[in-house]
Design brief:
It is built from one helix and three strands, in the order E-E-E-H. The protein is α+β, with helices and mostly antiparallel strands. A hairpin with a 5-residue loop joins strand 1 (9-14) and strand 2 (20-24).
Length: 48
């Protein structure tokens, strides 16, 4: 799991099966993926 600051999210990409892939600044070695089940809740949290 990850704790991410909103201001560190550079981009959000659509990943397969309805998942979201976060591109962070500074970048991380591991992919940060939001599950399909949490994607809509995550977007709501971001206000998108």
């Amino acid at each position: 799991g990850f704790i991410v600051q909103v201001k560190s999210i550079a981009q959000i990409h659509t990943h397969f099966n309805g998942k979201l892939l976060l591109e962070l600044e500074p970048s991380t070695e591991k992919e940060v993926v939001i599950s399909r089940e949490k994607a809509s809740e995550f977007k709501e949290w971001l206000g998108k």
